[in-house]
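For the sake of transparency, this paper describes our internal protein records without simplification. An entry from our holdings is shown next, in its original layout:
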Amino acid sequence: MKVLEGVVVADLSRVLAGPFCAQQLADMGADVIKVESTDGDENRRWQPQLPNGHSSNYASVNRGKRAMTLDLKSPRGPEVLRRLIERSDVLLHNFLPDTAARLGLAYESVRAVNPRLVYCTINGYGEHGPLRNKPGYDLMVQAFSGTMSTTGFEGGPPVRSGVSFIDMATGIAAYGAIVAALFARERTGKGAWVHGSLLETAVSLLGYHAISWLQGGQLPVKQGSGSSSSVPYQAFECNDGYMLLGAPNDAAWMRLCEGLEDPGLAADARFASIRLRVDNRAVLIPLLERRFRENTVAHWVDRLERKGIAVSPLQTLDQVFTHPQVLANEMLVKLTDSDGADMPLVGMPFKMETDDGPMSPSRRPVPRLGAHTDEVLRDVLGYSADEAAALRREGAV
């Protein structure tokens, strides 16, 4: 039995953050019902489209769910939604606050229907303040939150992080908050309102950059692959590609010098401490760059790893998903699609093991639009076959 088995989740969210949160709930055993408009989550149409008919975006965050369609603007749509709220333990959506209110999904409204409900809302800029109804995607929040001011090279144009890390981190944060609210409900018998946003996630992830500004008045300086707080801690070009290494303390620095077989570098007073290496970055980095270009990535990675240096080749995804370390930690999940085709997906970001064994990801594949509408109407909401057919005729589902 999985830890969230028996928990019913109504997932009305779209795109990445909310669906990723709900996917983790499904992996832990919850019965997640993906509720979409009759047009489907916009993420279904994003590029690239896969040979199996899913978009890569949609497939990345929607495994393990049952999918139904529901037109909330139809005459009987609110009736179906109300019945779903009554029978759910968790309701998750990412409508803007005023939109949610128009749809009857404000906290006060759903709490009146189900006081035990854990109600989770995710939006771009937060539930409060002048921008609460402003639409926001990961890209814009990278800019608005100041995150983008730390990426790229000094004097260069804005650079977007290659992964939608604010979206995905928001999903992880919301998952943790929902589980905490479910735990609290076991003690109090009452539900709760959990609300998060891309902005709150992004600002919290500023970490030491934020503290440097708040307490030291120092704005971050763009360092490309490097760091303003530690040297060397960046990418270096070898004669056949790039590697990334870090020697963020004095002991690691001495081991790096040993790996380079350069006692003169180790004895150089300009590099004798973290502070001095940061201050003399412009001198030290060119010295290291010249040395690393003398040999291959494999040569240096092997040599420096034997000295206990944190080092990695710059891998592409074809290398990542065939690497034994990635496979050993079950970050590649192989499912079968509804048509019998193989469906490789990304594993869970955390694992749980109990006396009964490890929790494995949901084996339910990524759902087609509306694939489980009749099933949910019958098994979860209690509609008869005739009533479900009537809902279809009337355009509610």
Residues 233-314 form a domain with the formyl-coa transferase, domain 3 fold (CATH 3.30.1540.10). The chain is about 40% helix and 15% strand.
